[in-house]
Structures are given as C-alpha cells and as structure tokens.
Design a protein that fits this description.
The complex is a heterodimer of chains A (about 375) and B (about 800). Chain A has about 375 residues and is α/β, with parallel strands linked by helices. Chain A is built from 14 helices and 11 strands. Chain A folds into 2 domains: about 150 residues, Four Helix Bundle (Hemerythrin (Met), subunit A) (Up-down Bundle), CATH 1.20.120; about 200 residues, Rossmann fold (3-Layer(aba) Sandwich). The chains are: A alpha/beta (about 375), B alpha/beta (about 800).
C-alpha cells in the first residue's frame, strides 16, 4: 500500500535511522523519545482513508527504524506501543461508548496497584464520538481528518509516559529504601539516579557505587549522588563480591527487559546480580515500561551483547599489542530472570515472572515482528 | 525534519550556517595495488565487502558533510556509475555528490588541487580526504575547532587529523610516514618531516628557530596520518601559486611550514577517540581489514553500520556471517576467528578459513585452506587449494590443489589451472588481450604491459593448465631511465606490501632510532637537528661566538651564495637603472633573502658591494669624485638599513672588507665619510669597528686582502683621529659653553650606552637566521605580491633559458 505512497516525512525517518545506525542517538530513553517524535510527524503528515493503511505505514516506518539499530530495543517497543494505542483509540472512536467496558479487562498492573487507574484511562475519551466513515469515496481525507486529533493524543500519551518516567519510577522510592540501609549500584542509569535521589529526601542511607569498567560511568554516578547529599562510596568492580555481605539491596538499571523476565544491562550487572544471589541479597531493577521488549533471548544470541570497540580496554596506541591480542568488549550483560527479584517500573512493581503478561498487555500480538 | 511550524526558522538557520563541503581525491596517483587496479579504480576495491568509496562516504556522512566533490581521473566513468548507483545519491541520504573528472595530465594530488582551484567549487572551509578512508572520527568537531581558530588567526589554513598509535602499529605505514613537531599548547604543527622506510631515514632536521620560539615542543614519530585535512579556501589557491607542489604532505605541508614567506600556520588534531586510517597500500589494506573485523572502527562494523548495506551476524570470535541465511556452510568446514563471509557463498566440506574476508557468491572447494586471504566477489577456490595472506580479485578461479603463497595479488578474472604454484609476492593478471581494451592512460599502460610480457620468460611460478594469466615482474627498479620517486621505489614499496616482513632489508627500526641518533649528530651543523634539544641547550648553541658561526654560514651557503649574489646584483642593477624607490628595492631584497635563505650579513655584503661598484671612478678630480660618491650614497645608502636589520658596525666592516678586495679601495675613506654624512653609520660605530681585531685583518692570511684591510683600517684610524680633533676643537672653542657641552657630553655618553646595549642585542639576534615577528599586514601583502612577481619572473626566465 505504502509502496505507491511515498512515506511521509521520509527525510526525518531516514535521518533518525542513519543516526541510530551511526550511534549518534544512544541511550534507551533518548532513542525512544526521538522515535516517538518521528512517528508523530509521520502520522501528522500521513494520508490514509482507513486504519489498515495507517497501521501498515507505521509498521513500515517502525521496521526501518528498528532494523537500523537492533540493539536499541526501545525503538521497536515505542513503535509497538504507538500502534497499540492507535488501535485502541480507533476502536473506541469507531464503536463509540458501547465498546468502552471492554477496557476493564483484568490487568496485572492494576491488580498489583490495587485498582489505581492507569494514566491513559483517565483521558476523557468518551467524548470522542465522531462519526467515522472509512474509505469514503467522496472525501477520502475525511477519515484521516476526523481521526487525527485522537491519534495525536494517543501518541502524546506515549510521549508523556516517556517524559515522566523518572518521576513515576522514583515515586515509590521511599518504600523500597529504608534508613541506614546500604545500597549497591552499578553504572550511571538515569532512572536509578532519580530513584536514589528521591529516596535521599526521606531517608538516610549509604550507596556503594561500582566503578563499572571499562566505561567507568560509575564515577559520574558517584559524583552526582554525593552532590545530592547522599553518602557514597566508589569501589572497584572486583570488590563487589567482598562487599556484598554488608549490602542490603542491589539496585540497578536496565537497557531492555525481555519477556522472560531477563534483561540487558550494562556490563558488570551480571557480576553484581550473581554476587547478590550468592548472598541472597535482593536485586531490584529500576526501569520504565518502555523498555519492555517482546523478545526472549532463549538462545543467548552472541551479538546481542553489543560488542563495542576495544579501545577502552586496550589503547590503540599500544601498537605491537593490537596485532596479537583479540579484545572482546561487550557493552551489555544478559542478566537472567532467576537473578532479579523485582522490577520497579513507572507503572507498579512486578516480579520477573509476570513480565510476559505486561508485555502482552502493552503491545498487540500482531506487532511482535514489525 | 521538524514540524512545519518551525520549518521556516530552521531554514534561516541553515542559510546562516555554511554548507559543509568535502573533497575526495578518488585517485591514488600511484600503482601500489596493481594489477588489482587494472580495469578498475582503486576506490572501487572492496574492503570487508564494501567499496573503499562507500567507506569514505560513510566516514564523511558521519561528520555531517552535505556536499561532496569526488575528483576522479582514471576510470572516471566507473566511479561516476558507482556513485550514481549507490545509496548515497538517493535524496534521502542528505548528501549532494558531484563527481569531477580531471584531465589525464593530473599526476599528483597537487595537480588535483589546482584543478579544484580552477573549478572554483570551494566556497568555504572544506574537508579534504582521499578516496580510501576508513574513519569514524567526528570530523565536524575538527571543523568546528578549525573555524574557531580561524576566527582569531586568519593564517591557520589547515588542520590535519592524526591518530595516536605506536611507532610500530600495524596500521601505520612503514614506507611512508612523517615526523610531526607540535606545540602542545596550541597544537600547532611547527614542522613536518616526511619519512620513508627505505633507505631508512635516521635524521630529521628541525629549524632552530622553532626551538627558540616555543618553550615546549613535541616531536612525534608515533602518529598515523589519517590524511583527513580540514582546509580553508586559500589552500587550493596556494597550490595554484606554487605549481611545484605535488604531494600534500611532502610538498605542501613541508613547504608551507618551512617557508617564512607564506606565514601560514597548520594545526594538528590528535584524535583521542575514534578510528581513522587510509588504505594506502596492500599492507594497510590487510591491517585495516583486521581493524574492522576486530571492531576498532565501531560503530562502523559489519554487523552494525556496514557501508555496503549488507547485514552480517556477529558470532563468537569476531566471525561475521551474512544474515540472510544464504551462506551454505558444510558441517565439517572450520571457520576460525576474525572472518567475514558474504551472502550466497558456499563453503564445502573440510574447508578451513581463518582471518579472512570472503566476498559474495564465492565457492570454496572441499579441503581448501584460506589464511589471511581477502577474496572478492564471485571467486572460486578449488579443492584443496591454499591461499595465504593474499588478495584475490573478483571472478577468479583458483584450480584445485593450487598454492597461493604470502603476498600474492591476483587480478579480476584470472584463471589458475590445476596445481598452480605461485611464488611469494607474485602479481598475476589475465593476459592483455583478455582485459578490456579500454584503458585510460594509454601510453603508460602500453609500456607496463610490454614490460609484463617481456618478463614472461623468466617466470618461475607454475600457472597451471588452461590458465589465462601472466605474472608481473617484481620490481620496476631495473629500468634506470625512468626516474622513480623515492617513495615509490621498489624497496620502499616492499614495506607497504601485504605479508612482507622485509626482514632482509637493512632497516634500523624507525621507532627507536630517534633516541640514539642524537649522539652521533655533528653539533656544528647550522640548522639544528632533531634530538632532545632542551630549550637551554638550544640557546647555548645559538649564542656561539661570531666567527665560527659565520664560517659555518660561509661553508653552508657557498653554493647557494653565488646564485644569490648574482640575483641581488641583477635586482639592484634593475633598481638602479630603472630608478625604483628604496622601499621597493628593499622589499625585493627581502624576498630574495627569504627565497634563498641566506643570513642577513650576506645581504648586507651584497648591497654594499652593489653600491660601491655603482660609484663611477673619476680619476682626476677628487671633488667631482666626492660628489659622485655622495650622489650614490644619498640615493641608495638608506637601502643598507632597510634590508631587514640595522647594524652599522657590520656595515662598516663589510664595506672595509669589500673595498679591500676591490678596485675602489682608494675610495674607502670617501665612501666611509659619505655614509657617515648620510647618517648610516655614526662615529661610535666607526670606533667600535676600529677597535675590533678582525677589522685590521689580523685573522687573515697575508696577501692583497690583508693589505687592503690594513689600509682601510689605517684610513679608519685617520678618520677617528679627525673626530677626536674635532671634538677637542669644539671643546676648546668656547669657554662659556663648556658647561653646556659637558651636559651634552653626558647625554651623549648615556645615549651611547643605550645604543651599545641595543647594539649588543642586535648582535645577538643578527647571528641567527631569525624569523622575524610577523610583518604588518600591509607589508606582508606587499611582500607577497613581490614574491609572486619574483616567482613569475623566475619562471619566465627559466622558460627562456633552454632556448
């Protein structure tokens, strides 16, 4: 369908795809935000006379973006989420209030939060009783014209979720961190940083930050936390196991959460999680729901860890060594579901075993493969 | 694209910001990849299954370049076609690529630059790269720094991107590299010395004034020159002005930095992060392939951002297999680490592959062994064949049981029969009649082919039955008539060959020599040498006692001196006869001095000589003679002080020296008096000169020269006596003015003291060949114009001479 229609805002799509490919957009939230913005442009410029046209268009764009950088899972996630929301909006708009009760299906996150309403449920959609006429021969644009405001709102929902994710995750921080606890963390995850800082307002506790070689992002984390008035220790990665017996909780961030409850996280996370398991220390993962990915990594795909250049391990200036040493420098660790105790998301806390259910709720099945 | 509402604003911003331009020199101007480059330009050779040009485009696109000019010469049509068909020419790529075809007479990068100038395509600062670049450096960052620097310093014309590596890094070219002398604070490149591998270069000469002017200097021999240059608009025009610049590094950078006329600065950007290297030869082809496979170029790696738009899956041990499931690999085939296998390739039972790159649609026969082999598309390797450290073109058939040993290059379309045996470093191509007749540089190719065909009798390699191949001769060094560039000489080329360790060549290893060589240096060489000269030691060597320095100058300059003298004489003659103003004459002299790099004293000698010889001798009438002298001296005397430094004592010395050897010896006294009258020298200067032992000719051998000097000295003595007399007369003349006189005297003495101090300073400075502080803008412009004129004139003269 879209083969005869050029993709609207093609340049923006190509631009983002190129930047993703060249790793000029890095970080899961950054990539997700950029993707939503591009999708919004695509929708606003798209011409369609029925919902299938729009969906296939979005899927095509989404596929291009997701394939441009398969390691940034959030790109695909956001596309799926937007598709999901668009379908939902369309259904409510097309069938009017009659179908509205179907929204009250059982939701695990609602169950966990004991009936607290989800954010996009409160949106006053019941007013949207527009007469939609698909494939109107007289005015092919009327469908798009009528639906677009609703769709934009649906996309805005995703955008809002992304923008408020840190606040929402750290809302419950004080319930997880208690006074005089010792927390171990690794890497410089913005989510974890916000979480710890927010807990710092209420509690007096200590954070041990592992250096997180070879990127040493732990250094920034330690600086940032101690600037916020939290008592912080920076330790080398190697001492993680030795310190684990004194640690009350391990709080780490994630790059992507897989449907089986496992996750990709910065190198060293596996080390921390395994050490925590050995001491039966709880491992808490702070993350936004946009990182939920409908993938399983059942075969431990080797390339999935995203091997970066060796220069942070072995300098390029070490001329004679470069020829003789093969350096393997993975950016991520795969942390299996058995090593994680709980995921704290912007929409409630979930055990690894129920992640598959969350994934099913957030995305439509037909979008699993874009 | 931003939403529509802000699109207008964005456009305004874009208009303000200049379009970032880049120029790719797609021709290599050498033949290191022969015979792979028969029928194909080098930039279309694949590395890791994407053409070099694609890698270059990707490197530039990464930096946000919007407009690219591709300068192509040989096989320009193929390059154009490749560009047209690549993904880069799609509108969505955001690149505007303009291929420019230069004349066949373009033989060097310098010619190409002149071509760029005549095309007038460059409107702002641009990036200059070669068409064989693999880089992930953020060049836009370099451009930003370059522009910032330009804002304060208009003379910073170029920023070279270099990458730190060890001196013996695999990617660093052993045959062709450079020593960079940098100022660590400003990262200005103070000096560049090209280094070639064979014959090994052990000395690098660094002009002394660099050490004097910069408190801290870094001398580095461990940088990979990425050949990414951020140039300003002037650079092509500089090439145009200096028509003898051929190579960008060896001629242009070296020339600009050693010239004290151009007053241009070149800076270096030492890339700390990122990767950049040039596929300049087969050796670096091998090294860069390895770098790509071991992910140094991340994110430009086969499984992520492959410029050829292939998709590869990254497996344990840096193995990359095409992702579309079209690779047919036998269960018993062994695929070792650091290997890339293209789509639709099949690998039969028992084949073993390691450290290799295999193109698309290849067939590897059962039991074949590939080690460090680079195999392009559509090639078949027969059963049990062995290919080691070699590059095999596309569409090649290697018969079963063949052996291709280290360092072989096999051109496209070669067929090797059964059990062929290629010797090490053999270069093989199909016979001439099998290659497309259409070739770009006809004559040269013709010669080359003739040589290849003549060579066939002496071939020792076995090409197998049914082969269509010819073996190319190993070296071109046998034909003496052809003047081979040092860099392209056979032995130096060996250092750039794939798989060649060149262990039989006598190479002192370039990395470590720098330390020991300082001991063996002869200290009395005038231009200071590269060693760990600290600032203090350079200062001591600068203030050597005068005679030794001047003798050295004499020694060194003797050859160039004659030429210089005649030049000066000619230019002064012109000035005298055509009645130039003193200003113009002095500018001309200055440029001459810089052009032939002679010490100031030499100029003074020449000027004094010219003036003295200018004075007509009037035998009979002394008063008329005096008049003539006065006429010449008042007209041209000021020129003596306008040549770039004022040193009256030296003037007197030089005058005496000259007169003593000239027929105008009797005029010495009168001339001295005349220049005294013209305020060119004054009393004290004559006294100082007189007091010097050398002026009496003491250190000269007895002979007419010494006698002359002695006579001059005697005349000087008389003059001084006269001065003394005058003074005492003056003193005695009026009693009541004695007090005033005393005051005057005191003042005079003070003045003398001051002058003495200044004079000492002058002495110190005049001994060095000092690059003076930058001239004022107007002066500089004038000087430049004069240089241009002089260059043109010389060119004209040079043209005339052969007739």
């Amino acid at each position: 369908m879209s083969s005869d229609h050029p993709v609207p805002a093609a340049r923006a799509v190509d631009n983002l795809a190129a930047r993703l490919r060249r790793r000029q957009v890095v970080g899961s939230r950054e990539a997700a935000l950029e993707t939503v913005l591009v999708l919004r442009q695509v929708v606003s410029k798209a011409r369609f006379s029925n919902i299938e046209q729009l969906v296939s268009l979005l899927r095509e764009v989404g596929k291009r973006l997701a394939e441009a950088q398969p390691k940034e899972h959030t790109v695909g996630n956001v596309v799926r989420k937007v598709l999901h929301n668009i379908r939902e909006e369309y259904n409510t708009a097309a069938k009017g209030a009659a179908v509205a009760p179907t929204r009250n299906v059982f939701s695990i996150s609602k169950f966990v939060l004991q009936g607290q309403p989800r954010k996009y449920n409160v949106a006053p959609k019941s007013e949207m009783t527009i007469s939609l006429k698909e494939d109107d021969p007289d005015d092919p644009d009327s469908f798009a014209k009528n639906l677009k405001p609703v769709l934009m709102e649906a996309i805005q929902d995703v955008l809002d979720e992304l923008e408020t994710v840190y606040d929402n995750v750290s809302k419950t921080a004080k319930d997880h961190i208690h006074s005089d606890e010792i927390i171990l963390t690794i890497g410089h995850s913005k989510t974890v940083e916000a979480f710890l800082k927010s807990a710092g307002h209420y509690r007096n506790y200590t954070v041990i930050v592992a250096e997180t070689g070879p990127s040493y992002s732990g250094h920034e984390m330690a600086t940032s936390l101690s600037n916020a008035g939290i008592s912080t220790f920076l330790v080398p990665d190697s001492s993680m196991y030795a310190l684990m017996s004194r640690v009350n909780k391990v709080i780490i961030g994630a790059h992507a959460i897989l449907a089986n409850g496992g996750m990709f996280a910065i190198t060293g996370s596996l080390l921390a999680a395994t050490a925590a398991r050995a001491h039966s220390t709880p491992v808490v993962v702070c993350t936004g729901q946009f990182k939920l990915t409908p993938a399983w990594n059942l075969y431990h795909e080797y390339g999935a860890l995203d091997f970066t250049d060796p220069s942070s391990v072995l300098g390029y200036e070490e001329g004679p060594l470069v020829d003789k040493v093969d350096v393997i420098n993975p950016y991520y660790d795969y942390v299996g579901p058995e090593l994680v105790d709980v995921f704290i998301t912007n929409d409630g806390d979930h055990p690894p075993s129920s992640i598959y259910r969350l994934v099913k709720e957030s995305y439509d099945d037909e979008d699993q493969h874009l | 694209m931003p939403p529509k509402s802000s699109a207008g604003k964005e456009k305004d911003l874009a208009a303000e910001e200049e379009v970032l331009q880049a120029v790719i020199l797609a021709d290599s101007f050498n033949k290191r990849f022969r015979p792979l480059t028969v029928g194909k330009p080098r930039c279309l050779l694949p590395i890791c299954n994407a053409t070099l040009l694609d890698w270059t485009f990707e490197s530039l696109a990464l930096a946000g370049v919007q407009e690219i000019f591709v300068i192509c010469r040989s096989y320009a049509d193929l390059v154009k076609k490749a560009i047209r068909e690549s993904k880069w020419s799609r509108p969505s790529s955001g690149l505007k690529i303009v291929p420019i075809i230069t004349a066949k007479e373009t033989f060097s990068p310098g010619d190409a630059m002149r071509d760029i100038y005549t095309h007038g395509i460059i409107t702002s600062d641009f990036i200059l790269v070669t068409g064989d670049l693999v880089s992930n450096i953020r060049i836009d960052e370099v451009v930003r720094m370059h522009k910032e620097r330009r804002r304060t310093n208009k003379d910073a014309i170029m920023t070279m991107v270099v990458k730190e590596s060890g001196p013996q890094h695999r990617t660093r070219s052993r045959g062709e590299s450079g020593v960079f002398v940098l100022d660590p604070d400003t990262s200005e490149c103070l000096h560049y010395e090209p280094v070639i591998g064979y014959p090994p270069k052990t000395l690098a000469r660094i002009p002394r004034e660099i050490l004097a002017e910069h408190p801290e200097v870094e001398i580095r021999n461990d940088l990979i020159d990425c050949c990414i240059d951020v140039c300003s608009v002037e650079v092509p025009s500089l090439f145009q002005d200096n028509f003898d610049y051929a190579d960008i590094r060896r001629d242009f950078v070296y020339g600009v930095l050693t010239s004290d006329l151009l007053m241009k600065n070149i800076h270096c950007y030492i890339a700390k992060e990122g990767y950049a290297a040039r596929v300049a030869d087969t050796r670096s082809y091998d090294a860069i392939s390895k770098d790509i496979l071991s992910r140094w170029t991340f994110p430009l790696v086969p499984d992520d951002n492959h410029p050829g738009d292939h998709a590869y899956e990254h497996l344990r041990g840096n193995k990359y297999i095409a992702k579309d499931n079209t690779v047919i690999m036998s269960r018993t085939a062994k695929v070792g680490p650091n290997t890339l296998i293209g789509a639709h390739t099949s690998i039969a039972d028992g084949a073993s592959i390691s450290g290799s790159v295999i193109g698309q649609r290849c067939k590897i026969g059962p039991g074949a062994v590939l080690k460090g082999a680079y195999i392009f598309d559509d090639t078949e390797v027969g059963e049990g064949a062995l290919v080691e450290n070699s590059i095999v073109g596309s569409g090649v058939q290697i018969g079963s049981g063949s052996t291709v040993r280290t360092g072989c290059l096999i051109a496209d379309g070669v067929v090797l029969g059964k059990d062929a045996r290629l010797a090490r470093f053999d270069r093989v191509s199909p016979r001439r009649d099998l290659v497309d007749g259409e070739s770009t540089d006809g004559e040269e190719d013709e010669e080359e082919w003739e040589m290849v065909e003549a060579h066939q009798d002496s071939v020792t390699s076995v090409l197998g039955e049914g082969s269509n191949a010819v073996v190319w001769p190993q070296s071109h060094s046998e034909d003496e008539d052809e003047e081979v560039d040092e860099v392209e000489s056979y032995n130096n080329q060996r250092l750039m060959r794939i798989g060649d360790t060149a262990s039989d060549l006598d190479l002192s290893d370039a990395g470590s020599v720098t330390e020991d060589e300082s001991d063996s240096e002869d200290e009395d060489d005038a231009s200071s040498l590269m060693n760990g000269l600290s600032r203090t030691s350079s200062m001591t060597s600068v203030s050597l006692p005068d005679p030794s320095v001047s003798t050295i100058h004499n020694l060194q300059a003797s050859a160039a001196d004659l030429e210089f003298r005649s030049e000066v004489r000619q230019s002064l003659d012109r000035a005298f006869t055509e009645g130039h103003s003193v200003d113009n004459a002095s500018v001309e002299l200055k440029t001459l001095r810089m052009a032939s790099n002679v010490p100031l004293r030499r100029v003074r000698e020449a000027v004094v000589e010219a003036i003295v010889e200018r004075i007509p001798i009037v035998e009979s009438d002394p008063s008329k003679q005096r008049m003539e002298i006065a006429k010449v001296v008042t007209r041209w005397g000021p020129l003596i002080d306008r040549i770039g430094g004022v040193d009256p004592v030296e003037t007197v010395e030089v005058l005496a020296n000259h007169c003593s050897q000239s027929t105008r010896l009797p005029l010495f006294g009168q001339i001295l008096a005349a220049i005294y009258q013209a305020d060119i020298v004054d009393e004290d200067d004559i006294r100082t000169w007189h007091a010097r032992p050398s002026s009496k000719g003491e250190d000269h051998k007895p002979g007419p020269h010494k006698e002359g000097l002695e006579r001059c000295w005697a005349i000087g003595k008389m003059m001084i006596e006269q001065f003394d007399e005058q003074e005492s007369e003056e003193e005695s003349e009026e009693e009541d003015e004695k007090k005033r006189m005393k005051r005057m005297k005191r003042m005079k003495r003070k003045k003398r003291k001051c002058r003495n101090r200044r004079f000492l300073l002058r002495l110190r400075t005049s001994r060095r060949v000092v690059r003076k502080r930058p001239m004022k803008a107007a002066k500089r412009r004038r000087a430049k114009r004069a240089v241009k004129k002089a260059v043109k004139k010389r060119a004209r003269r040079a043209k005339k001479k052969p007739k």
